[in-house]
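Problem: given the chain below (383 residues), write out its structure.
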Amino acid sequence: MAEKHGATDLSSLAKALDQEIEDHIDSLEKKPYTEGFSEENWEKEIENVPLFMTKSPNEADYANNPALAAIQKIKYDEDSTPVEKAQSYKEEGNQYFKERDYRKAVFAYTEALKENFDDDLLKVILLTNRAAAQFHIENYQSCMMDVARAKKLKPDHLKALIRGAECLLKLRKYEKCLDWCDMALKISPTDKKLLETRTLADQGKRKQERDERIKAKKMKQKAEEKRVLETAIQQRGITIKNIEAPEDYSEGSGHEPIIDSDGVIHWPVLFLYPEYAQSDIIADFNENHRFVEHLNEMFKEDEYAGWDAEKKYRAERIEIYYEDMSSRKLNRVMPDMTLAEAITMKGYTLHPYTPHFIILVAGSPFKDHYFENFARVCQQMFG
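Solution.
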């Protein structure tokens, strides 16, 4: 059984208060009175007096103010009943709520609910109050859990129903929000805030359903486009690295292949420059266009990429390759070839769905190094 606060306990608190007063008086006798109330500091000083405090105290206040600690200890004395303690915590939580210190309010209401009492109405009030505090700090899931518990204890508690409806609106659970609104409106049919919440929920539900229909339509269209594309790829005899490509088959390039009204595929093509660890994406490479057309546009005379320190990447010096892992070789693509011809060459494997090509400079030391390194990697991989 817990030890009760008796005369000895209260006596020690009283002595602490008396000692504080005596120490203060002693300090007044030793020096002129300079720290008392004045026109400049009276509001600050009186705020330290528990009776006149305008804000709820925090833990530091209790530690530094014996008078406040004494009141706190008496307030939650073990002689009090669980209901009395819960009521005290509720009042404290209400004060925090008024000050918009919602986190402390949540703590106070939680402490109240920990008390072992049988008053269901008080439990409902505490749960609804805590839900309101949770709502203000945007803890909507916690808010919803509290109002659901309150509703279970008292299905016709109007505040719990209203708070639940508002919370469900924030969570965009419009169907459930409408249900809670309708339950509350049976109790208070003309509640302006409730009617407004229901209107917003109805509008939200309609928009949500419309958005879902649009999304479903787009997904269906996307699936059909992908099916048509894959059929066209198979008809062209293109080998794909992995047919189980992700839904977004731009593979990180931000672009996707499309088929125009003439049945021509327009590919996003990736040029890789391993010498400088750089890359270029050609967003729309018509399968019937030749590589030289793009190279002449990308590497114009007297115009160089910022990373090309030696200014050697010129259209006439560039060589295009792809990795042929089946024969373990780097195969060359001639500039006058079309993209359609290149990606149907022997050993070419398409990365879904962005063709990749390696760009090297003819006669450069790096080209020789790259070929040697590729052969070494193949040897390690395949023996």
